[in-house]
């Protein structure tokens, strides 16, 4: 029996009211990469197309979505279902079919297997180099006691970086998101923490334990510090937080050694080239890598060693925070006793490192490290 227009409208309204747009999108396997639960905003990689930069924003309070990476892609939960099943083409999924599916889905947490996700598993930082791109730099202000309490709490309590260190090396960065909806209450303004790189760009991350969002404003590059002219060794870090943690451990406000922050593992070769060609570092032939305990840390270390060649000696320190992904994670989560032991070692005249054999496989290096442990690295804890 055909439905009257009033009956059809009632059916549509009921489906919209009973549906949960967040459950619908997450039933495809998508996970929010940015969220503001207080405002009901969640941002995802669009699950119906390749989307290296998370472009699909939903609002659970309004039960609506906006895909700022696709022209005119916005609407309610029914329109989202049409896009998902149509793999980006809502015309491939009739409105009535989407309505029927949504009525069956309401109250469930798992969508039918018919929905296939094409999103990439990891968020890739966005590089911005000129006006008109998604993000543009507005201003940067050094962290200070006047910094917003939420940002200070993240820096001092979550990351355990003291205000004394943060005020010299961290900034509150304001930037513009040109893809923000026209009714955005912040008018597209976004806020993060980070610092400058050597190309006069800015490396930014979200000041939240619940978000891994990172981006670059301007040209992306490494960040370097010249160091003391009497230094005999240099230090290489994956990210700024590990660098700041090392200052906390050493009890200093500025790095004494020549220092490189990669800002991304893919800049390992770039870092090696700078090390070899920078005149101030001509006599620095020994470099320590504060490596992360993951595949990216292993790969970037391998690249640095290969690019530096036999004229340099490279050592790694990541065995001191074994069991943790990186130095800052160890700093925030490990027992205080471990902090004290490593702090004492780092403040000594020489810090033992594990010698890195760039010709060996990762498995061979670990075996060799275990054999040399008692010689070069007495167990601290």
Structure, explained:
The chain has helices at residues 5-18, 21-26, 77-85, 95-105, 149-158, 163-169, 240-250, 268-277, 295-308, 327-333, 336-346, 362-376; strands spanning 34-36, 41-44, 56-59, 64-67, 73-76, 126-128, 135-142, 171-177, 189-196, 202-205, 214-217, 223-225, 234-237, 259-261, 286-290, 313-316, 354-355. With 381 residues, the chain is α+β, with helices and mostly antiparallel strands. The chain folds into three domains: 12-105, Alpha-Beta Complex (DNA Primase, Chain A); 125-220, no CATH class; 222-381, 3-Layer(aba) Sandwich (Dna Topoisomerase Vi A Subunit, Chain: A, domain 2). The strands form three sheets. A six-stranded mixed β-sheet has the order 6-11-10-9-8-7, covered by helices on one side. Strands 12-14-13-15-16-17 form a six-stranded mixed β-sheet. Strands 1-2-3-4-5 form a five-stranded antiparallel β-sheet. The longest helix is centred in the last third of the chain and has 15 residues, at 362-376. The protein is elongated. The model is unreliable at 107-132, 355-361 and 371-381 (pLDDT under 50).
């Amino acid at each position: 029996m055909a439905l009257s227009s009033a009956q059809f409208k009632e059916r549509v309204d009921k489906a919209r009211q009973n549906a949960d747009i967040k459950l619908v999108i997450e039933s495809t396997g998508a996970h929010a990469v940015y969220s503001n639960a207080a405002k009901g905003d969640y941002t995802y990689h669009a699950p119906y197309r390749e989307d290296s930069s998370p472009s699909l924003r939903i609002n659970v309070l309004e039960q609506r979505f906006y895909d700022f990476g696709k022209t005119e892609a916005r609407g309610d939960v029914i329109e989202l279902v049409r896009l998902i099943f149509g793999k980006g083409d809502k015309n491939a999924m009739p409105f009535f079919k989407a309505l029927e599916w949504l009525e069956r889905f309401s109250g469930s947490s798992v969508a039918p297997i018919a929905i296939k996700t094409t999103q990439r598993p990891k968020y890739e930082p966005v590089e911005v180099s000129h006006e008109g791109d998604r993000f543009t730099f507005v201003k940067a202000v050094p962290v200070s006691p006047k910094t917003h309490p939420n940002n200070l709490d993240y820096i001092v309590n979550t990351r355990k970086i003291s205000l004394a260190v943060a005020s010299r090396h961290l900034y509150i960065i304001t930037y513009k998101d040109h893809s923000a909806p026209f009714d955005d209450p912040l008018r597209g303004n976004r806020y993060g923490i980070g610092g400058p790189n050597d190309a006069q760009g800015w490396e930014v991350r979200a000041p939240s334990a619940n978000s891994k969002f990172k981006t670059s404003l301007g040209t992306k590059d490494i960040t370097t510090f010249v160091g003391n002219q009497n230094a005999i060794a240099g230090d290489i870090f994956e990210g700024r937080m590990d660098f700041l943690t090392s200052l906390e451990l050493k009890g200093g406000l500025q790095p004494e050694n020549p220092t490189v922050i990669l800002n991304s593992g893919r800049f390992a070769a770039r870092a090696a080239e700078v090390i070899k060609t920078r005149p101030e570092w001509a006599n620095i032939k020994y470099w320590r890598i504060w490596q992360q305990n993951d595949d990216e840390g292993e790969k970037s270390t391998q690249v640095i060693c290969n690019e530096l060649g036999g004229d340099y000696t490279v050592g790694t320190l990541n065995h001191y925070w074994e069991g943790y992904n990186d130095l800052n994670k160890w700093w925030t989560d490990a027992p205080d006793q471990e902090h004290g032991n490593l702090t004492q070692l780092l403040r000594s005249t020489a810090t033992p490192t594990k010698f890195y054999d760039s010709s060996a496989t990762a498995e061979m290096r670990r075996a060799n490290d275990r054999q040399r442990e008692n010689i070069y690295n007495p167990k601290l804890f």
